Amino acid sequence: MPKTYQRREFLAELAKIPCATLLLGVTGPLKVLADDGEGGYDAAEHYYAMGIQLEKCIGCGKCVQACKTENDVPEEPFYFRTWIERYVIYEDGDVQVDSPEGGINGFPPLEGDKKILRTFFVPKLCNHCDNPPCVQVCPVGATFKSEDGVVLVDEDYCIGCRYCIQACPYGARYLDPRTKTADKCTFCYHRITKGLLPACVEVCPTQARIFGELGKLSTPLNRMMRHSNIQVLKPHMNTEPKVFYSELDGEVR
Known about the structure:
Layout: H1 7-16, H2 19-34, E1 48-53, H3 62-71, E2 82-90, E3 95-98, E4 116-125, H4 133-137, E5 143-145, E6 151-153, H5 163-167, E7 174-175, E8 182-183, H6 189-192, H7 199-203, E9 209-213, H8 220-227, E10 230-231, E11 243-246
Parallel strand pairs: 1-11
Antiparallel strand pairs: 1-9, 2-3, 2-4, 5-6, 7-8, 10-11
C-alpha cells in the first residue's frame, strides 16, 4: 500500500529521486493512459466535454449510483466522483443547499413554512479543466491532462500527498482510503475510449447530461451549447472548465 507522506517527509523523499525518474513521472502516465482502449483508439482525434441541462435534472440520484458501481468508488457516503446538490431559493432571499449522501438516494421533501421562490438540482463532478490547477501542483506528474482533454490520475505514480485535492476549486477529488491515492471523475475513460458513454450519462432518465466532443458541430453537446445559455462553475478561477451548464442560476457556487 502506498505510503502517505507529511510535507516535510515528502520533500525529503522527493530530493532522493533521480531527475530521470521525475521526468518519467511527468511523461509516462500520459502515454500509457492516452493509448488505452481497443480498436486503435487515437486520443489526438478527440476532445471531450460534458454538458448539463439543469432544467432537466430531477435529482433522482441514478447518476451517482451508476458512477459508484462502474468506478468502484468506496461505499461510504462521503466519497464521490459525481454528486448532486439541491438549491432552495426562498422569497426572503435565503438560500439552502443540501446533498444528503451526495444525492445517491434522491432528496427528502422540504419542510417548514417559509415561502419558496424556486428549487433546482445541480449535478457536480470534475470539470476537466483546460487549465487545471491540480496538474500544476502535482509534484510527480501523477495528475495530467490527456490529449483528448480528460484530466486523469495514474495511481501507480500518485504518492498521496493531497496537493491536487487541496488545489481543486470544485471539491471534486478525494483520497481513496484503500489505495491512499487521489481519485476523481475520469469521464469513465475506460468506456469512452471504447466508444461508450460515461455511466452517469447512460443512466440519466431525462437526458440531463450530454457527453460529446468540442469542435464537432453535429454532436448533441455542440447543439446544446449553440442553443442554450451556457455557463461554467467559478469562471473567475480561470481554470477553463469543460463541464458546461445550461441556465446556471447565479446562486450556484
